[in-house]
Specification:
Ubiquitin-like (UB roll); 5-stranded mixed sheet; binds FE2/S2 (inorganic) cluster
Length: 106
């Protein structure tokens, strides 16, 4: 298990324990209380799993791939410094302590 801290769309902050395996989107959707929809199932084609990564964590995540970058670029709330698609981030043990904010629904 790993711990993550999530700020929801209303500004409420909660700590969650998640399994720490597979795409982070599934944990945000299924384990941590339905924060994101994950409409495309993790194919980086819907943007419904968009999150803003806390500043201190941005350099610790894997590089943004071409498909992820293309999808992010289409989102109104895109923030070049903080935006990621949670379906493109593996929720391994190295993410223990991750802090993020759920992006606005689009
Ligand atoms: S679940 Fe669709 S882009 Fe991440």
């Amino acid at each position: 298990m790993i711990r993550i801290t999530v700020e929801d769309r209303n500004g409420a902050v909660s700590d969650h324990e998640i399994k720490g395996e597979g795409p982070l989107m599934f944990a945000l959707r299924d384990e941590a209380g339905g924060y994101v929809e994950g409409i495309c199932g993790g194919c980086a084609t819907c943007g419904s799993c968009h999150v803003f990564i806390a500043e201190e964590w941005r350099d610790r995540l894997p590089e943004i791939g071409d498909y992820e970058a293309a999808m992010l670029d289409m989102l109104e709330s895109y923030d070049a410094a903080a935006s990621r698609l949670s379906c493109q981030i593996e929720a391994g043990p190295e993410l223990d302590g991750l802090k993020l904010k759920i992006a606005p629904e689009e």
